[in-house]
Amino acid sequence: MKTTKLAQTVLLSDGNKIPIIGLGTFLTTNKDQMTDLIRTALNVGYRHFDTAKVYENEVYIGEAFQQIFSEGVYKREDIFLVSKIMSNKNEVVSDVIRQTLKDLQVEYLDLLYLHWSFTPPSDQLEWNHKPVHQVWAELEEVQKKGQTKSLGVSNFNVQGLVDLLSYAKIKPVSLQVELHVFLQQNRLIEFCKRANIHVTAYSPLARYTEVINNQVLNNIAKKYGVPVTQILLAFLIQQGISVIPKTEKSFRLKENFDAINITLEQNDVEELKKLDINHRTIQPATFQPFQFIPIFD
């Protein structure tokens, strides 16, 4: 049954609107569970769904949405669908997008991100990177064709954004980065505000063990009578930052979504700000073959 409780939306600089909370699908690759997961999320109130080519689940997501749309309760226009592509020199962006749309079984995306500012070398250290200015020009053509409503970038630092803004004919409207109480990235957030770039947080819940054992978080959660996860999400949402927590558990879907109902008192916000230790849970420098490239330095 369709819920009447939906998350608020944020107006992007191009006039489109993005829901403040969405469902991340990284590592969600169980074909049999995908339809039930998305249907449950929709019934809870989610409208923002985030995927990427490299997640290797777009076919399953497409099949899930088609099944759900056929039931007549929801339609494509109800969904804010997001995907991401890499800057691979061996690929033509238009071909990649054509395949993404085919896999997702839709005619357009609501938001398309350039996933990283570079493509790492292959296992043989053969460089596959296509310069961002070339990829962005191709992405602009994708938007002009109506294959995506908006364009954005992911995992860019301030320097990368400054460079992109210097030549982009169509400006990025959103930046997706890792963001949580332990990695608040205030300098980056402030730059995005000045540049009118919306911010979406991936991994907004950080790591479970770090969160569940933190006394400050537990004390604040106890004060509001909610799970710690809701405090983490509310902290970001209250700043106008979209969040895309991921889960495959139905009860967690609602638990996370209910963070939109929490308003933190300013003294609690200040306590949460003190938890920032510039700690990344996703660190490409530890991955092969990213390790030689200082992406975030």
TrEMBL record:
List, alphabetically, the InterPro entries matched. AKR, Aldo/ket_reductase_CS, NAD(P)_OxRdtase_dom_sf, NADP_OxRdtase_dom
Domain of life from the UniProt record: Eukaryota
Q: Which SUPFAM superfamilies match?
A: NAD(P)-linked oxidoreductase
Single GO MF annotation: oxidoreductase activity, acting on the CH-OH group of donors, NAD or NADP as acceptor
- Where in this chain does the record put each NADP-dependent oxidoreductase domain? 21-276
Keywords on this record? NADP, Oxidoreductase
Where does the chain bind substrate?
A: 115
Record CDD domains = AKR_AKR1-5-like
Q: Which Pfam families does the UniProt entry name for this protein?
A: Aldo_ket_red (PF00248)
Q: Where does the entry annotate site (Lowers pKa of active site Tyr)?
A: 84
Q: Any keyword NADP? A: yes
Task: Respond yes or no to whether keyword RNA-binding is given for this record.
Answer: no
Active site per database record: 55 (proton donor)
Which family would the database say this protein is a member of?
Belongs to the aldo/keto reductase family.
What this protein is called in its record is Aldo/keto reductase family oxidoreductase
Task: Provide the taxonomic classification.
Answer: Eukaryota, Sar, Alveolata, Ciliophora, Intramacronucleata
